[in-house]
Amino acid sequence: MDPTALAAEIRSRLTGPGGAFELRPEPIRGVELPAFVHRRAALREWLVESAAFGEREFLVQDGRRLSFAGHAAAVAATADVLARDYGVGCGDRVAVLAANAPDWVVTFWATVLLGGVCVAGNAWWTPREAAYSLGHARPAVVVADARRRPLLAGVDVPVLALEELAERTAHHIADHGDVPLPDVPIDEDAPAVIMYTSGTTGHPKGATHSHRNLLSVIEYHRYTDALAAELAAAFGRPPRTTPRRFLMSLPLFHIASLHNLTLPRMTSGDTVVIDGGRFDPERVLGLIERERITNWAIVPTMASRIVSSPSIASADLSSLAALSINSAPSSPALKERVRAAIPSVQAAVVDSYGLTEATTAATVATPAELAAYPTTVGSPIPSVAVSIRDALGAPVDDGVEGEIWLRSQFTMLGYWDDPEATAAVLRPDGWLRTGDLGRLVDGRLYMASRRTDLILRGGENVYPAEIEAVLDEHPDVRECAVFGVDDPDLGQAVAALVVASVSVDELRAFATERLAYYKVPLHWRITSEPLARTATGKVIRTGLAL
User: Fold this and answer.
1) In the prediction, which pLDDT does 302 show?
2) Can you tell me the distance from the alpha carbon of 278 to that of 249, in angstroms, rounded to the nearest whole number?
3) What is the domain extent for residue 513?
4) Does 258 reside within a domain?
5) 333 Cβ partners below 8 Å, 6+ apart?
6) Which of 158, 191, 210 is the last residue of a domain?
7) Pick from 526, 528, 517: which is nearest to 493 by CA?
């Protein structure tokens, strides 16, 4: 039986007329786009339904195990605190600046059920970055953990300790019992989440996702579960009878962990095990073994470190049934190393292409596709249109390289309070210009490179312009150019060529005070020679080297 043909037949039936995940054109902000007909009308419906899973584990971290019923009760009590003590209502922003934790998720849900907008703060921000982003979002309150609260010393906004909020929520439940969930009418196209991306012009931009975006993402993941179940049945595999256990290794301020892991798993009754702290292969291998992890999404750097770990040979990873590699291109060689090191995912390694502005994956490469076409990042997911355009925005022929454009029900509303930046990437006809380069061959996408000057460091997007803007502030720096260099562990590392009369140590310290650690250049070259520029004054980046 041809798995690709079978999957296409099942997909057509599930998303066609009368299907459980039927797609039908409908107006979305003035543009007719395919949308899931049977999606829920509001996020609140999913939270109410999730409580029926009762004492089944939903969020696990260290010794804490929060059940589905406990999560729903905590959301209701937290919403009561936010509304009563901070006046949070429709349109108000609540920023969360904290490491991954169950209370992060609870705060998100409490915010969106009140009609508020959750600002997913980057837990790696420096004080400067936090001040800019929070000043731009203007939240009613910032919920921050102990490690991040010192970053907010100069931010003029109420700060609520995450630990205190969790304690008050627990006391609220103990004193008053379960309180009702907020029941606020919320427009489907109202903003729900702001995620700040690294800025191409020196400042982060707040990609804003709507309630419709999140409801559609949930529906897409429900569809993939239904497709997988039918494929398994067709090949005679027994149906799944126990909840899956997903490991969260990526930050909640990424779409990978919030939109595409936490939200859909709450609706499916699966467990999310949260790994705390920076990625450590030895700790994670032990966590997979102890918690019997079944599903895991990682970036290429994590995959490389895991398969290179001396402990992998003795670790019991037999529970791991599926692994996806996201956020940055991964080579066929790396995927093969993963399959060899973790035999249980031999036929279940997938790849994908997406970006924050698109809310979820735009294309997914199934195991069958990767077996036949190892370098593809897959075919468009249901309802997503992918087009390759030239510099003037005209479609190019099959196999010709150009800019990747996307259009779907998943596309962000725009950049928060930045109409100029929004207009630069989001056209009135619904097409999103990604800035990434690729080509389509027989409907499958192949990446040429990420955004022209973008550095992909371990799955994190790093924009040279942002770092250059900081280095230019140093009084002894005359000019500079930041670029990526190949790195066997990170994929790319940040390098800086600086025209200055200053030491590398001083420049590194200067940058460290002003930039998140992953943006600080790892490689430096100080020179007195002016940088080569074009006739219009732009640095010639071709051939930049240390």
Assistant:
1) 87
2) 9
3) 455-527
4) no
5) none
6) 210
7) 517
